[in-house]
């Protein structure tokens, strides 16, 4: 028997070794073809008396299996040519058959009457981990540094659909399993062993042999839940522990997520219902919840943005096709403050030699010390060897002499947001770098085209906007100036991919994309404050909307004096074209009359105790902006949520209409990664598409009448509304091979 995705070898002891090695793929994924192979293997395993048991492993050095092929699932069941001809009811049935069919394949393996072990040589996530859970025994490589086991589906708006919500709590208990399912967290091999999800750890070279030894010694193996009298660890649903888990779990889930995420609610329901019935009925329950959730607008948008689009961007979808391949081997970083030091660290981590320049040796060395602190923590936690830490630090060269930049492929300035300072460091760097060297500005607001006027090679000048802290933030916004060449863009993209960040590409504009639209969220919060809405209501509703923090909190985090400087510079640049707002007055009062700069000086919209105690709203806000609305009923809360979301979404549409954005993926992925735009929507353009352009325009016009032109939709949206178009249809992105 031959399989499309597996190889089969039967040894002299009658043990079958099924090796997952999907052709043409760097990583195994669970496709419809792979599922069919597993079903066929289960049938042979059950019927062939010559086979006494089996070991399933991977032939990929990259790992065991990365999970289900979501692109195939989306195309095959929701958007493919065959699916488009089906009714909604027929689509639901077709999707259920796919999902439940996979569950049946795994269940057939589990109940074939012969022992099956999984030899896990690397990461096994989602459906890949669910294959392992359906095996009777699991051996994981203890020496595979990137091995992770888990069910991350909740992170992209889905629920585990191949038995994860049922086998996990039956193995480790409901109380321990729910956080793992709801948060999508993964485990190391050692953590999985301690949790009872893995039976044995072994060196990678011994995995298969250890697994075969267990198979030979366990001819009558069964899954625990198939043994008569089985009880889940910690008890079932209707036990004191179970009842407490679900009561408290539901309360905590709603507190943390404000019920914004249907997947988490579906996971809770699937576990609650499934743990009360036998495993076969439980798997049908899980399949139903998977299908119901998968068809929600939230799930469709989150899968598209956080999985499919993210993959495309991480392959370099914005890279000019005809640009030659490039590689940054030597990087110059100007400014050794927190941002520059962070850029130096992630670059050295990627194997790049870094020259870190600052005004004096103490400042430059302090910048390198930032990396030293990070690697010392990594060594202490066992995540990096002392030797690798020393190699990383040896790649960072603090200096004060710009001559050290000679030979740099790329120079990134991370100095103060001041045109004169940036112009000075640009000239000094370009005086010693070669003709092919690219200069990148890490500015967050100043237009790149204007900064490039200080460059002798404006075609090699580009924006490379990192987010703080650089070592934790995944996004880098690359900004093309009017003279930026394709070669410079390609090199910047190649660099960002090399340091394992997600790049988006935008065209030049004041504030570009991320700073410009993020600013609308915090400004809308300040506008609400000026209207007399209680500040606690504003920040609480901001979080309820799905944003990571309230707008007033975020204003303090970013720094109010910085906001005032940016507004002042914008006003000076635009002159009569600048439009004053109520939020301008509030920020001016906070900074210039009350000296409240935000968290950095312990005084902003909140007071921050010097001892690190809990922050509290500044009582003086009552005088600065007297409260007129101190209570909020559900309708009022819904209106504020609409304002927060639509204000950001309409500004994103303007960026698209003006050509600042040209790729829908950049818009949605960038919004979620840069400032945490409500992930449950899939991003601002996905939000518009899910509402429908006509309804979105109607709502924006209503808000514009109430609150001003900032809500007025651009002509692009009106045209799309008239034609019943969506962004993802009208501006369908080009896929990357």
By CATH, the superfamily of the largest domain comes out as 2-enoyl-CoA Hydratase, Chain A, domain 1
Helicity range: 40-55%
| The CATH top-level class label of the largest domain | Alpha Beta
Shape: globular
Oligomer type: single chain
Q: How many structural domains are formed by the residues?
A: 3
Query: How many beta-strand elements?
Result: 20
Biggest beta sheet summary: 8 strands, mixed
The portion of residues forming beta strands comes to 5-15%
Radius of gyration: 28 Å
| Mean pLDDT score | 92
Overall structural class, as computed from helix and strand content, comes to: alpha/beta
The CATH topology of the largest domain: 2-enoyl-CoA Hydratase, Chain A, domain 1
Low-confidence segments: none
Major sheet strand order: 13-12-11-14-15-16-17-18
What is the distance, rounded to the nearest whole angstrom, between the alpha carbons of the first and last residues?
32 Å
CATH architecture of the largest domain: Alpha-Beta Complex
Q: How many distinct helices?
A: 31
